[in-house]
Design goal:
Order of helices and strands: EEEHEEEEHEHHHEHEHEEHH
Bound molecules: adenosine-5'-diphosphate, magnesium ion
Shape: globular
Number of helices: 9
Number of strands: 12
Distance between the termini: 42 Å
Largest sheet: 6 strands, mixed
Radius of gyration: 18 Å
Structural class: alpha/beta
């Protein structure tokens, strides 16, 4: 498998039943790029992320993740699914963090972080345990390894969720409104971990309402509405000088 941290989507379409949710999505994300996606509820932001990590399959278009056809490949007349085994391998290189943390409630923080390497990659438990310990430290939670999710604050749970994703050694990290479920005073600690990750050169696609984070950390910004990418450009440029009327009116409401 190539290891390059890029994402390429060309003319992606995706429908659920009669409803077309992604209409003509084109994007190109470079290795190490931090791309924020903003837009109203229902515009298709989560669906874009879910396609990029293989939780959804697209109906048509080209999707290349880490430099290779992702989940399916196209011949002259048809789409063909890649084998489940290959898709599973592809998916390990794309981490995803959700609004609702999605930790395993019956596992400690430490066990949550080890679970992917041990269960999916059949990693040596001792090695995985050591890495889990380092990851906990890197998200500021050394000493919390034996805590269960219910014993942790939302901000702590989300940092464990980030560590758990990182344990799989992804080349790309996707974040779907990672701070939206948090109490305001917990938002900063999660954004700080994400900022660290950005500095390390991780490719990141972040759906967020945190315009401060977007302005400070993002390289590029995408505004989506109604299944389309309406505007895309340099993050600070789009935020201070949006060209499209729909972007302007959205930003007027949220800034
Ligand atoms: P956003 O994240 O921007 O709020 P989503 O990508 O979650 O938007 O959803 C886009 C549209 O697709 C919404 O109208 C939503 O109701 C619909 N949708 C998303 N997932 C499904 C699904 N699994 N089945 C049917 N409709 C869905
Ligand atoms: Mg969403």
């Amino acid at each position: 498998m190539s290891t390059d941290g890029t994402i390429l989507a060309q003319k992606i379409r995706k429908s659920f039943g009669p409803k077309t949710v992604l209409k003509d999505i084109n994007l190109e994300i470079a290795s190490g790029e931090i791309c924020c996606i903003i837009g109203p509820s229902g515009s298709g932001k989560s669906t874009v992320l879910r396609c990029i990590n293989g939780l959804e399959t697209v109906d048509s278009g080209v999707l290349k993740v880490n430099g290779e056809d992702f989940g399916y490949y196209e011949t002259e007349h048809a789409y063909h699914a890649v084998s489940p085994k290959r898709l599973a391998a592809q998916r390990t290189r794309v981490g995803m963090v959700f609004q609702q943390f999605n930790l395993f409630p019956n596992m400690t923080a430490h066990e949550n972080i080890m679970s992917g390497p041990v269960l999916v990659k059949h990693a040596d438990k001792q090695v995985a345990g050591k890495e889990a310990h380092q990851l906990l430290t890197s998200v500021g939670l050394s000493g919390f390894g034996d805590y269960y999710p219910a014993q942790l604050s939302g901000g702590q749970q989300q940092r464990v969720a980030i560590a758990r994703s990182l344990a799989m050694d992804p080349l790309i990290m996707l974040f779907d409104e990672p701070t939206s479920a948090l109490d305001p005073e917990k938002v900063g600690e999660v954004l700080a971990v994400m900022r660290d990750l950005a500095k390390k050169g991780m490719t990141m696609v972040v759906v967020t309402h945190e315009m401060g984070f977007a302005r400070e950390v993002a390289d590029s910004l995408i505004f989506m509405d109604d299944g389309y990418i309406v505007e895309r450009g340099d993050a600070r440029e789009v935020l201070s000088n949006p060209k499209e009327p729909r972007t302007q009116s959205f930003l007027e409401k949220v800034l």
